[in-house]
Amino acid sequence: MKIPKIILPFLLLLLIIGCSKDSTDSGNGTPRVDKSANLKALGASANELLSDAKFTSLTIEVVYVTGFKPTDVALNNLSEFLLEHIFKPDGVKITTRAVASSNKAPFSIEEIAQVEADERSVYNAGDEIAVFLYVADGSNENDEDNKLVLGSAFRNTSIVLYGKTIEKIANNSPSTAKSDVESAVLNHEFGHLFGLVDVGSPMQVDHEDPESQAHCNVSGCLMTANIEFGGSIIDMIDNNIPELEDLCINDLVANGGR
Fold first, then answer.
1. Is the dihedral of CA 133, 110, 244, 45 positive or negative?
2. Could you say which residues form the signal peptide (predicted)?
């Protein structure tokens, strides 16, 4: 089977994790927590997130470094975005919790994965699927002058937002609210968890950007690369958070979503 190129950067990370314990045991008889379902490749849980065939509810554990809590507006916008595109009859729940800085910025994705291993407390259980969202107090190690990484969906139920970089982008545009930048990046990264573009939710019509894998080539779509990598995100927002265009929506519907 041909492995999608977008998954390749994560294989080493997954192999490292696979060599460690995939469950926890307090040693006092407390049942172990099975983590294996949340340690898969990006897009592997697209259908499970979109449909209610296996999971009827979604919990999002937001863990943020003190001082970098996402705005309430952005979290509310995320809830609306999710309910618009997924089937979860028992609802979507978002919890928030502050943690101390890891003091590791700028971050590699492996360092972010270690933060998740240290801080994540909610995993799939019963008919509830769980997503971990970490808001870091620093930047990505691969940032360049003209390309800033604002966020990354790096496993099937794992997302990181680079809070300090998002603040920098928002502060450079007095007319753009931080909550709008957060919303665009949050929704974009959940789009990747949903398997867009062609990473778990097969394309019904070819619309992948040939210059940026897993991104949409339709101008103005939420899943264009400009959202994730800074670029012209401010111009794209312009007081309106980008939405999924029809080709991306069709992919989600074909894979169990709305």
1. negative
2. 1-21
